Amino acid sequence: MGVARVFVVVLVLIFIFVREGRAATFTFVNRCTGTVWPGIQSNAGSSRLDPTGFVLPPGTSRAVPAPSGWSGRVWARTGCAQDATGKMVCATGDCGSGSLECNGQNAATPATLAEFTLSGGGGDDFYDVSLVDGYNLPILIEPAGAATGATTCAAAGCAADLNARCPAELRAEGGAGCRSACDAFGKPEYCCSGAYANPNTCRPTPYSQVFKSACPKSYSYAYDDPTSTFTCAGGRDYTITFCPVATPRFAAALSSVLRLTWSQFTSHATAPALPHVKSSGGPGSTPAAPTGPTPTLPGAGTGTGATPQMPRPAGSQGGPDGQGVMLGDNSWLASLATGDVSSAPPRLPLRHRASLPLAPQLLLLGLGLLLL
């Protein structure tokens, strides 16, 4: 009788395990140049993960288990520190808990969100990266065991630096993030609310198209489902990478040096302005806005103030403070810093070389005579 009971208990446990499915593991990876503080929020009715927030230095990773059936969102907080009262506050993505753990609280906008529903309808996993609440850092979701070339169970996310191309009217204070049009203006047509609360009336806007062109595998507005939701068979693990496109740190430094050298050179020369390098129209290009206001992109117009400081992912181009995005006439320098010299401008005509300061020319002439 005792053996039969044990056998029944074992069968029940096996049934529960099969019904509930295998727990998943989220592996958080930080490829940014600075520390991030991931936050985790479970949806209503979903169990709390442990931890709900932690510190993740650059170049490190951490695994967090999640039970089957879990749903919620994760994000990266940036620029976190203790204030005068000892509470933890963050420049972007702050969950308002005042501590390392977010304790069920959501991210303050703007923040890039990675959203999951594990073992949902039909036992499948659903996931996406959302820019509906704005953007603060690049995020990439990679499912384990995804087939090469797959379209539904594949990597999803936003690897672009949207802070560098954020329209001026959406730029967060300090330039640390890019707000959504809904957050910035609060109008129903941007928030998909009121008369626009359905996919037939809430359509892409010029602002959402700026996001979509830069990050085609991310949600750009509330009804962006068909091209932005990804599905995998349940029971697999996921890697969540912050700043997935990382290049050697010297690339940004080299770009800064080259920009300084070029500015010094052209300050003495009378060469005409170099032609503006335009996008080829692929991901990252700015689409034409069929209706609505035209977003004010960086570099457009005359401008009245300096570019605000922006935290950069590893490999982003600019000076040591993260400023000076290579746009317009000097955009070839950024390509040169990463090894692409195809867009370098032509050499100056001889008549413009002659306009260089006299002292360097005499020095070069002297060196040439010494070598004869």
Please count the helical segments: 10
Termini distance?
Answer: 106 Å
Q: What value does the average pLDDT take?
A: 73
CATH homologous superfamily placement of the domain at 21-242? Thaumatin
Alpha-beta classification: alpha+beta
Strand order of the largest sheet: 3-1-12-9-10
CATH architecture label name of the domain at 21-242: Sandwich
Using the coordinates above, name the CATH class of the domain at 21-242: Mainly Beta
Helix content: 10-25%
Largest sheet: 5 strands, mixed
CATH-assigned fold name of the domain at 21-242: Thaumatin
Provide the gyration radius in Å: 25 Å
Q: What's the shape? A: globular
In terms of DSSP E residues, the strand content is 15-25%
Beta strands, count: 12
Order of helices and strands: HEEEEEEEEEEHHHHHEEHHHH
Low-confidence segments: 6-20, 247-291, 301-312, 315-364
InterPro entries: Osmotin/thaumatin-like_sf, Thaumatin
Signal peptide: 1-23
Pfam families: Thaumatin
Keywords: Signal
